[in-house]
């Protein structure tokens, strides 16, 4: 089968290769024929060397949907022919962390697919702990609609959950990329009173506004963000801030626009270490929550899509064939205006 392989000996560290089709290794495995996959910013982090745990000679990719073609003997709630979306994380469901919902820290899994074991940017993929990692799709939910459930939609939901939103809260989302847009729609679903979108990309801000995901949009290149947020909050600051951009300047912005005793949820992945300027923020009494997504709400998110309470279809702005995935990576890395997410088809 065709598969995109990460290997530090390749030019650019990636190459479309011929690989053997995956087989059942463990009785809890399933094999999925990939119908759609996509490229994530964290895939770019791997090929740029920012993910030390990523294993050499691994098929990339962890966001996909498809059809089950084989299951292990211990897989009882999934069958051959089922249409499924995938969780970006592998988790056993039995360890200390899994039982508490912290599946990103599963002692038997975590971020495995496309990082430490072969992922989904291929024709077929093996999914460990398939009963946990795969969610069946109802007839009314298309592959396109479910493509982002297990990663960026879950990440947006994770960010809003971290902020413990109460009815009427003002939530600021820094970064109007795919994760930020998902965070906005989840904040709306959780009954935030005002959602503020912040980005330097006017096209993305327009999407946030036109789709009704944000009530106010601001470009920090054109205004004083702290001042604008205070104007909307009786000079307090945002009740919750979700940092989805992932650079030094946006991290600093996140705590500056938060009101005292607010929660700052950081879902972005950074490419360099950052420090908390504790003397500068002393007295604000902020709570910071950070880390990789605990994507434990996939079934709920599929249900919300089925009920048309949320929709991520608009995030697919380009499609590429698997045979052209190298070109797709270049395109996604350059992110021309209007590019949100790319769907990779067989």
Task: Write up this protein.
There is one protein chain. The chain is an alpha/beta fold and 346 residues long. The protein has 2 domains: 2-148 and 312-345, Quinone Oxidoreductase, Chain A, domain 1 (Alpha-Beta Complex); 153-290, Rossmann fold (3-Layer(aba) Sandwich), CATH 3.40.50. The chain contains 12 helices and 16 strands. The chain has helices spanning 41-47, 96-99, 130-133, 143-146, 149-162, 178-189, 202-210, 225-232, 248-256, 278-281, 298-306, 325-334, and strands at 2-6, 14-18, 30-38, 58-59, 64-71, 83-86, 124-127, 134-136, 170-174, 194-198, 216-218, 238-243, 258-266, 287-290, 316-321, 341-345. The strands form 3 sheets. Strands 3, 5, 6, 7, 8, 15 and 16 form a 7-stranded mixed β-sheet that branches. It has a 6-stranded parallel β-sheet with strand order 11-10-9-12-13-14, sandwiched between helices.
Brief summary of the model shown:
This protein is of the alpha/beta class and 346 residues long.
How large, in whole angstroms, is the Cα Rg? Answer: 20 Å
CATH class of the largest domain: Alpha Beta
Classified in CATH, the superfamily of the largest domain is Medium-chain alcohol dehydrogenases, catalytic domain
Strand content: 15-25%
């Amino acid at each position: 089968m065709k598969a995109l392989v990460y290997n530090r000996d390749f030019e650019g560290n990636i190459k479309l290769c011929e690989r053997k089709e995956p087989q059942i290794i463990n009785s809890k495995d399933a094999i999925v024929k990939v119908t759609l996959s996509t490229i994530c910013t964290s895939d770019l982090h791997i090929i740029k060397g920012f993910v030390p745990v990523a294993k050499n000679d691994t098929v990339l990719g962890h966001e996909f949907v498809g059809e089950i073609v084989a299951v292990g003997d211990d897989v009882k709630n999934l069958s051959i022919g089922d249409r499924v979306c995938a969780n970006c994380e592998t988790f056993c469901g039995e360890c200390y962390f899994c039982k508490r919902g912290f599946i990103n820290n599963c002692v038997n899994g975590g971020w495995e697919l496309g990082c430490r074991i072969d992922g989904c940017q291929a024709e077929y993929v093996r999914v460990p702990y398939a009963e946990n990692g795969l969610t069946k799709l109802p007839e009314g939910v298309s592959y396109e609609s479910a493509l982002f459930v297990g990663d960026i939609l879950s990440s947006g939901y994770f960010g809003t959950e971290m902020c413990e939103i109460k009815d009427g809260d003002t939530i600021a989302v820094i970064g109007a990329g795919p994760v930020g847009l998902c965070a906005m729609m989840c904040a709306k679903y959780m009954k935030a009173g005002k959602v503020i979108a912040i980005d330097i990309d006017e096209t993305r801000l327009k999407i946030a506004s036109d789709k009704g995901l944000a009530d106010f949009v601001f470009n920090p290149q054109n205004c004083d963000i702290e001042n604008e947020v205070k104007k909307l909050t009786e000079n307090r600051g945002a009740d919750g801030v979700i940092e989805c951009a992932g650079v030094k300047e946006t991290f600093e912005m996140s705590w500056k626009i938060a009101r005292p005793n607010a929660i700052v949820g950081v879902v972005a992945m950074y490419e360099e270490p950052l420090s908390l300027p504790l003397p500068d923020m002393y007295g604000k009494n902020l709570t910071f929550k950070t880390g990789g997504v605990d994507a434990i709400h996939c079934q709920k998110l599929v249900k919300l899509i089925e009920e048309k309470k949320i929709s991520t279809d608009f995030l697919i702005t380009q499609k590429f064939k698997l045979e052209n995935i190298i070109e797709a990576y270049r395109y996604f890395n350059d992110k021309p205006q209007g590019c949100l997410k790319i769907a990779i088809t067989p």
